[in-house]
Design goal:
The complex is a heterodimer of chains A (222) and B (343). Chain A has 222 residues and is α/β, with parallel strands linked by helices. Chain A has 7 helices and 12 strands. Chain A has 2 domains: 115 residues, Periplasmic binding protein-like II (D-Maltodextrin-Binding Protein, domain 2, 3-Layer(aba) Sandwich); 104 residues, D-Maltodextrin-Binding Protein, domain 2 (3-Layer(aba) Sandwich), CATH 3.40.190. Chain A is elongated and about 65 Å long. Chain B is of the alpha+beta class. Chain B has 2 domains: 141 residues, Bira Bifunctional Protein, Domain 2 (BirA Bifunctional Protein, domain 2), CATH 3.30.930; 144 residues, Bira Bifunctional Protein, Domain 2 (BirA Bifunctional Protein, domain 2, 2-Layer Sandwich). Chain B is built from 13 helices and 12 strands. Classes of the chains: A alpha/beta (222), B alpha+beta (343). At the A-B interface, α4, α5 and β9 of A face α6, α7 and α8 of B.
């Protein structure tokens, strides 16, 4: 039995269901809408596993699911050496989002990472602590800042409502997912010119740890 | 086998008169983060203590040994220690995540060249018989060259802040060697956050002033590049650097310090012909060595030992008080293996 992991909630689940539907594979929740048991019609030998999008990379890496739907951002953030554990099968054309670095719009002197780094040095001298960047994408953000060479910052964890941290004075900048940028603007934040960390979209992934032949399913998807 | 080798190396360090010290495996994360930056998180194991907050499995002994020394306040002092350190590996799955270090640290204000030579000679005495090759460098040369550039203190400070990040350093140098690019001021917004409006206008003023600056002269950039390219047998490198200092007097005192060190190494009985020098050596290691740096590598290419001078670190940890410090560590797992090969 091939186990297919799909996000268990919201728009990502709905879009995934209709994407599979267009390929003649009907995914649905069994029983009531609150139940996390899935049903698959239109293809034999596939079992639907409903999971949080953030847990799908880990389950794929462990081989407990054989195919899975989640964003590029989740796979790159959650898995070290991700390409040893999973392989992309097909990009699904929805769930597009950019992981970006943004600063307060009132920082009119900061448009690039170079500026951010210069301000971080000064900020630490003035305030006695390292400039705080709020994010839930710790690995990706840290790697991005290391590759450029930004110093004197610290990451603070923010699992939601990240756009509000600057106003609340719990961080000076953020690294977060955005699709249209409207939430950022509403919270008086501006993306740095060279602040694109990763472009993400919903993708079907194949586990490299699974010893199950998924080629028949894959052929239907691509 | 590692224990026997550890004891053998410890005995050599103890014979110099060093005092054996211990350090906790769990260290407060905050001190290490402030010192090494956020990047240490990807290289150290971070854990959480319900009462003491974020802790790290010690990535090295340097910080606890320096803290202990600062608290005891006796000088000069020599310490030795041994035990496991822990390094998370994000990408290289072949590298060990837990290994032993045997270390030797000297805190002494007198005769810097003599202290450096003494420390190096002890390491050389242990490692040369195992067929290890010594390399050394001197981050003080690059610092002196930066100080000698015809530019503002702000630009010098920016360059010095990034000497341990060669890629960013090269970017900054390129930026400072070109006329300043004028950038359109983006649309602002209501003031939010801790950084004040006057901080923003102060930086705008600074950027305006910077736009009027002359780029760093091409000749000076070349000099810096030539300096970083100096590499070869120690005595040849010293001669090259001497010539460079003729054109660039800012290097004089740093080159003199190197010459003093070479003389002290010779006096300590280290065969100078065994030694390689590279001006860029040690720039990518953890950012605390700020003068003399050295390392020993096996024929197989493993770094078996490393060390150097780290006055800047003692300055940060001592909150203004600084103690000249030179030290290094040996990895007994690797030397045990080499000793087996030699025997």
């Amino acid at each position: 039995m091939i186990k297919l992991g799909v996000p268990s909630k919201g728009r990502l689940m709905g879009d995934t269901f209709s994407w599979f539907g267009k390929r003649g594979i009907t995914l649905s929740k069994a029983g009531s809408d609150r139940e996390y048991v899935g049903k698959v019609d239109g293809i034999e030998g596939v079992e639907l596993v409903l999971l949080s999008a953030g847990e799908i990379p880990r389950e794929l890496a462990a081989g407990r699911i054989h195919l899975g739907v989640t964003g590029t951002d989740m796979v790159h953030e959650k898995l070290s050496l991700w390409d040893r554990h999973v392989a992309p099968v097909v990009e699904m054309g929805f769930g597009n989002a950019d992981l970006i670095l943004a600063v307060p719009a009132c920082w009119t002197d900061v448009t690039t990472l170079h500026d951010l780094d210069a301000v971080a040095a000064r900020f630490r001298r003035d305030h006695g602590y390292r400039l705080r960047i709020a994010t839930k994408y710790h690995r990706l953000t840290r790697g991005f800042l290391r590759d450029f060479g930004v110093a004197d910052y610290q990451l603070v964890d923010s699992q939601g409502a990240t756009e509000g941290v600057v106003k609340n004075e719990t961080a000076e900048a953020i690294a977060d997912i955005t699709s249209t940028g409207s939430t950022l603007r509403a919270n008086h934040l501006r993306i740095l010119e060279d602040g694109l960390i990763l472009q993400s979209q919903a993708t079907v992934w194949r586990s490299l740890a699974a010893d199950v032949d998924v080629s028949e399913v894959v052929d239907r998807l691509v | 086998m590692t224990q026997v080798e550890t004891d053998r190396i410890l005995a050599v360090f103890l014979a110099t008169g060093a005092e054996r010290v211990q350090a906790d495996i769990l260290q407060p994360a905050e001190v290490l983060l402030d010192l090494y930056g956020e990047d240490i998180r990807s290289r150290a194991y971070v854990t959480h203590d319900p009462l003491r907050g974020e802790m790290m499995l010690r990535p090295d002994f340097t910080v606890p040994v320096v803290q202990r020394h600062m608290a005891e306040n006796a000088e000069p002092a020599m310490y030795t220690y041994a035990g496991p350190v822990f390094r998370a590996q994000q990408e290289d799955t072949g590298r060990p995540t837990e290994y032993n270090q045997v270390g030797f640290e000297v805190f002494d204000r007198a005769d810097p060249a003599g202290v450096e030579a003494r420390v190096f000679a002890v390491f050389h005495g242990i490692l040369a018989p195992l067929g290890c090759r010594a390399s050394m460098g001197d981050i003080g040369l690059l610092m002196a060259a930066i100080d000698g550039l015809s530019t503002t203190d702000a630009r010098k400070a920016a360059l010095k802040r990034h000497v341990w990040r060669p890629h960013r350093f090269a970017d900054l140098l390129k930026r400072f060697a070109a006329p300043v690019r004028q950038v359109a001021k983006p649309l602002g917004g209501p003031h939010i956050g801790v950084r004040s409006g006057s901080d923003v206008s102060a930086r705008h003023q600074m950027l305006e002033d910077e736009a009027k600056l002359n780029p760093i002269a091409k000749g000076e950039i070349e000099l810096l590049e030539n300096l970083l390219a100096v590499q070869g047998p120690l005595e040849d490198a010293l001669a090259d650097l001497g010539l460079m200092a003729n054109d660039f007097p800012a290097l004089d005192s740093a080159v003199q310090r190197l010459a003093d060190r070479v003389a002290a190494l010779d006096a300590a009985g280290v065969p100078l012909a065994d030694l390689d020098f590279a001006a860029g050596y040690g720039l990518t290691s953890m950012e605390y060595y700020d003068g003399f740096v050295f390392g020993f590598s096996s024929a197989g290419g493993d770094t078996v030992a490393s060390g150097g001078r780290y006055d800047a670190l003692t300055r940060v940890l001592g909150q203004g008080r600084d103690v000249p410090a030179v030290g290094g560590v040996i990895r007994p797992e690797l030397t045990a293996q080499l000793a087996g090969d030699v025997a």
